[in-house]
Amino acid sequence: PNPMSTLYLEAAKVLNKIEKKNVGIRSVIYSEKQNKCNIRKLSALVHGVSGKRKELELILQKSHLLEDSNINQISNYWLLLVLAYEQLFGNLKIQGGGALARLVRKNKDKLYECFSKEYPDLINQVKHSKVYEQIPRYLRVNTTIESTESVLNSILDQVKQTNQFANDDIQNYIWIDKHIKNVIACKHEVAKLLCLDRIPSSNELIKTSKVVLQDKGSCFSAICAKITPGDFVLDACSAPGSKSLHIIDMLNKRGRLVALDKDSTRIKTLIKRISEVPYLAGPFVYKKKNFVTIQIEDISDECLLGEIGCIFLDKESKLIRNNKLIMIDYLDNFKPPDLLIHVAKCDFLSLTPTAEDHLLPWYHYKNTISNLRVIVLDPSCSGSGLPQHGKVESVNIEKRLKSLSEFQTKMLIHSLSSFQSVETVCYSTCSIFTEENEQVVLNSLEKCKNSGNLQFSLEIALENWENPNRSYQDSSFGEIYKKCIFVNSETHNCRGFFLAKFVKNSSR
């Protein structure tokens, strides 16, 4: 029979010593010659068992495993804790053999039953975090800078250089997404190895903005809005910026984007991310009738709160010389640049366009807003679609959802009723709750209808998209289910996401 895993035996020994000598984990692990197993894995396992000891003891007691395991041998006691941790919190399965391993495997269902009865929130959290680990990291290629094929080849070369994956096995770890042709998916372990799972990153592809870390669901906002070069787009809640960067890429150096957010810290993150796009010049702020280049740390609320905020232009624009904005005296009469990005601090609900906005100089964002075609709206939400969020079990969740839903409905109604030139509105959340998704869509359309201002209809967001199986007791959601996008981690292997697309009746 297979022997007991060395890792489990060593972890049990370390835990026993910590208890007996009353010392810290690191001092025990590093004081001995731990050649028998990987120190990082050992340390993680020991920390894990220590952190969940109370829960493990209760689960083992309730499932009567403590009585069945000859627990008078103290080493068995720690080993049983290690094995129970591995089964319930760690890899969710036990490696190797041994009598105690067989005992835990045999009683696996009993352990899970006690776990879910005693700690329902915790079991959901564990389940969701495991799902999260299975989700690949999605890299959206900035096709204005580099082709998807070229980026894919770079990643494949980087993987080969690590010598950690067999050549004929690589396509199981990296692939082009089947729904979005400029998105590359990398399995967790590859992304981690190549530093393609973090910002800031040492990987040149991220440093040079050739790829952006962006979950697959979040890419649908710009795609479903069908943004094309020359469009005027508003990203109403834009920070920290993934969707704005995607819109900039889809504009392909022609068109305008107004990126708004009401939080100063988040908006500085957004400005920093936009300034990393290699073909953009900026940020420029308006001071004393002049545009000046400014360092991000020097941008004050005062700079961002006006109707100009800060702007970015294409480096190849005739208005840019040596990365500076020139011809200031003539700016008002000068032909607007082909590409213009405005970033401003503004609460979207307080943004009320007027008939005179189009008379403002082109560098005022309200001039752009007077001629918008698309609004991308991704307001604050519960974040319940993110697997690491775990299942939301909270006494206040109903209250919180009610307040979020009311806020989201206000935002959507404002988008659908206050901007005369807008033809398309894409509303999205990273939530799985009906209150923030279907209900917001239904309430907004109903309120617009009741106020005699229903100019938009729900449209199929994406052709050939298959939603996960859902059964609706409320038949009023039927149309929403057919036309909107529902993304979930189990079906689509990415974070939860919802998107509804509205198109103006006159432009259908």
Automatic annotation (TrEMBL):
PANTHER family: 28S RRNA (CYTOSINE-C(5))-METHYLTRANSFERASE, NOP2 YEAST -RELATED NOL1/NOP2/FMU SUN DOMAIN-CONTAINING. Residues 127-505 form the SAM-dependent MTase RsmB/NOP-type domain. The lineage of its organism: Eukaryota, Sar, Alveolata, Apicomplexa, Conoidasida. The active site is at C430. The keyword Cytoplasm does not apply. PROSITE patterns: SAM_MT_RSMB_NOP (PS51686). It holds the Pfam family Methyltr_RsmB-F. Keywords: Methyltransferase, RNA-binding, S-adenosyl-L-methionine, Transferase. SUPFAM superfamilies: S-adenosyl-L-methionine-dependent methyltransferases (SSF53335). One of its GO terms (molecular function) is RNA binding. S-adenosyl-L-methionine binds at C237, S238, A239, P240, G241, S242, K243, D261, D298, D378. InterPro entries: MeTrfase_RsmB-F_NOP2_cat, MeTrfase_RsmB-F_NOP2_dom, RCMT, SAM-dependent_MTases_sf. This is Ynl022cp-like. SUN family methylase. GO terms for cellular component: nucleolus. Belongs to the class I-like SAM-binding methyltransferase superfamily. RsmB/NOP family. GO terms for biological process: rRNA base methylation.
